[in-house]
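FW: tagging you since you asked about this chain on Friday. Here's the raw sequence from the shared folder, copied in full. Didn't touch anything.
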Amino acid sequence: MIKINVYGIRGFPDVQGGVEKHCEELYTRMNPNAVRFKVFRRKPYLNNQDDDTNNTDKNADREHKDKKYKNIQFRDTWTIKNKYLETIVHSFLSAFETIRDRPDVVHIHNMGPAVTLPLIKLFGLKSVVTLHSINYKHSKWNWFSRLMLKFSEKLVFIFADKVIFVSDSYMQCSIKNSGLKESKAIKIPNGLTSFNDLTSSIPISGYGLKSDKYVLYVGRIVPEKRLQDLILAFSKIETSMKLVIVGSYDNTAKYFEELYKFKSKLGQRLIFTGFLNSNNIKPLYQNAFCFVLPSESEGMPIVLLEAMSFGKCPLVSNIAENLDVTKNHGFSFEVCNVDDLRNKLEYMLNNKSIVKKKGLECKRLVKNDYDWNVIAKKTLQVYKDVLHG
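HL: got it, structure written out here
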């Protein structure tokens, strides 16, 4: 039995974020007779969602928060809910308790929490770090935060026993330009969540929507997602379509307020749903005309895989992490270029048959390539390699 402590995430189940969805899918699929996890969660994200979340979804979230798993123990730890201090405070509290626990392996997610690696190494613990994205490229950080994240990335490459990348382009760049030993690096992509058994309590008519009559975005409302580009481009197109943005903000309320100002111009054509769990996102995926992801920085976007699995043609910014997933299926535009985004989106709206055809191509592409069960087996093998290597 391998004992593993996990930190660097807000928590799960049903806590917003791609990393959180990754961990929920990954750890719950591992053999409880082979591995046991202690997952450190952040209390501020377990008790409530943002104010723009509807009541039905809040009730569902409360039920999911109490979900039990055979192989997972949750450790809910206090942290300050602050953009600059939240992660570092929680990570060190988790690291101190981990040192006392002395698990077989420590699994840290993202480069910020990995600043604790020298401490973990000092006490002789084995470590695995998963790098989900190049965090210092996120526009929400100031110069000092970016500097610290780059420093933390260096610590990962020096002290981690294994480094898992979800993005091949990031892994190859790290090996070539950042001095990461190739023997330490391994690519294990994100998987595709199954929506088959999920039933929504909110029909799309509850948002004033009709099938194939809206453009969809799903994800966190943070500056690096470049939602201002999407909304501005959409506002310049003469169409009866609506733009639906699913997700909430954490420490970026001012950014959301700036986006919400577009409501005065677009009215009911712009819809913010707030955070929705997987059940209630399902019908929005099913009935969307297309899916747009305008991010300037990503790791391997799970929401993009999800949208493609529903046969929705994606329009994505042309960053490597997005194109690694779409593989020239769907459409792309120059990142941060509002005019190019507008032109590509307008073309899609005027060529519905092409969009439908490309959507079916995307569905076939992701159907067999992103199996969470396979990913869980590969990750378990990494733990064994680290432990016995």
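FW: The longest strand covers residues 35-42.
HL: agreed, and The chain has two domains: 2-191+371-388, 204-367.
FW: great, closing this out.
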